[in-house]
Amino acid sequence: MIKVGDTLPAATLLEYSEVEGKGCSIGPNAVDVTKASAGKTIALFALPGAFTPTCSAQHVPGYVKKFSELQAAGVDEIWCVSVNDAFVMGAWARDQKTDGKVRMLADGDALFSKATGLTQDLTGKGMGLRSRRYSMLVKDGKIASLNIEGPGKFEVSDADTLLAQAKA
Fold it and tell me: Which CATH number characterizes residue 150's domain?
C-alpha cells in the first residue's frame, strides 16, 4: 500500500472535457499522473463511486466549497479520482458544478487504484472493484500526507482535514 513519502504511481487517468481549451479536445482526454503532478501541489481525494450518496452529498461538495481556501494554502489543483468511466465522471462534474475547481478523473480500469493498493471489492453490492475512500496531499508527485478512511467511514478524507494539512 502506498504511504507518505512515496511517489504517485505512474498511471493514466481520463478527464472528460465538454469544451476545447488548454490543449484538451472535446471528449475524454488522457491525464498522465506523473506529468500532471510534476511541480504542483495537488489535493487528491478518491472515493468509491460517482453519484453515490456520501460522495455526492458530502465528499465532492466539500472540496468545491473549500476550493479558494485550498488555493490560498498553496494547492494548485484538486483531483477527484474514482473507478468510473470518463463519461460518468463528466456527467457527475456537471451535476456537482466542479468546473474550474475540481478535476474529475476517471480510473476506469482501476489501474491507478490498484497501484496505490487502496482498492476495495464491492462485488455483491453491484459495484465490483472500486477505490477506497481517502485523501492525500501531493507535492511534486510525492505524497506529503495520506488519510485513509475505515470501511463505511467519512471522517478523515474530507476537505477540512486536507486543508489543515495544506496549511501546516
Answer: 3.40.30.10
